[in-house]
Amino acid sequence: MKYMGSKRAMLTNGLGKILKAETANSRCFADLFVGSGAVSWFIAQNTGCRVLAADLQLFAVSLAEAVISRDKTVNAGLVWKEWSREASEKNRRNHLFREAGEFDGIKWEKARRRSVTRAREICADSHRPITRAYGGHYFSPKQALVLDALRSALPTDRATRSVALAALISAASECAAAPGHTAQPFQPTSKGAQFLFEAWRRDVSSRVKAALERICPMYARAAGRAIVSDAETVAEKLKKGDVAFLDPPYSGVHYSRFYHVLETVARGTRSDIDGVGRYPPPIERPKSEFSMKSTSEDALDRLLSKLAARDVRTILTFPAEETSNGLSGLAVEKVAKEYFKSSKVVVNGRFSTLGGNLQNRKARIPAYEIILVLTPRS
């Protein structure tokens, strides 16, 4: 899925080897900014550590839980057969689904603005959370209705429900008509319409099924858990011998602005939305002190001091250059050395520019990232 600063590539570029070495004799691995879940999944599958994954956003926790909470595989075929059947039955009884299907047959490009207006009219009549909030914007009417039906038909068994929800979140990320993340959808302008309509043509069901088939065979060697929590609260529960992984935000904008669509999918509920981005109220958007210039360094200082006080070995990753929240690799390393013995590795990476515009700003740019291995002084 699309995620800002995902560690998936770094796991094959040095980070994975370091994580395995540092967790060799540990029982608990705490991923304190779980994000896309890539690191939690890696540790759960490749080591005997029980993973404790935490994040402020439910969608991130849901992604991690799909793998780290299970110690056996799930049959993707059986899950999809029952799940998709129930969702299809829900849409069969929904009169808007017929209208959405008819809308899909329109050649949208011939009247792009009228087509979008019509899509939004169809979705405005729905009481389903994803369709009403995002249909005609991030998703076509049919895409939105399929997402809603699948969300409401999630399996009740905990293990199958977790993998189904993760597959749904992944597919929603792949299908969202937005540049890179879900801060704002494409608009039906002369340049944006082609990207909007291309995204609206993506088959949600096939992408959910494919994601399910990817996730179901994965499982943890030792089942862990995932929770919605801030990093400091989790750090206070760790003990000597545990290992913590920190990949704190590097954006000066709260991450909840970029992932509110996925958060709605995870929650299955909708609030009043606002603006071109269809944002929920500010009170419902998690905020992190790590994403504010005025507090980011103090937040890091407090977190590292708590981990050091508990003799928790820590691996920390961060871009080498200064980022929009005011931190840099050098600043992070300076804070870390106040509390830990530190060793550093620098690796190549690629970072999101929050969408880019394909003209003077690319969606992803080459960059360097530091990996700090922090050992308690005691």
Would you write up a description of this structure?
By secondary structure, the protein is an alpha/beta fold. The protein folds into two domains: 10-72 and 222-249 and 289-376, 3-Layer(aba) Sandwich (Rossmann fold); 76-215, no CATH class. It is built from 15 helices and seven strands. The chain has a seven-stranded mixed beta sheet, sandwiched between helices. Helix 9 packs across helix 11 (204-215).
The main sheet orders its strands as 3-2-1-4-5-7-6
CATH C-level class of the largest domain is Alpha Beta
Helix and strand content put the structural class at alpha/beta
Number of helical segments?
Answer: 15
The count of β-strands is: 7
Query: Which CATH-level-2 architecture of the largest domain?
Result: 3-Layer(aba) Sandwich
Note the gap between the termini.
40 Å
Number of domains: 2
Q: What is the CATH topology assignment of the largest domain?
A: Rossmann fold
Anisotropy-based shape: globular
Secondary structure: helix percent: 40-55%
Calculate the mean pLDDT score and round it.
92
CATH superfamily of the largest domain: Vaccinia Virus protein VP39
Radius of gyration: 21 Å
**Residue runs with pLDDT of under 50 for 5 or more positions:** 357-362
What characterizes the major β-sheet? 7 strands, mixed
Order of helices and strands: HEHEHHHHHHHHHEHEHHEHEE
Q: Tell me the strand percentage band.
A: 5-15%
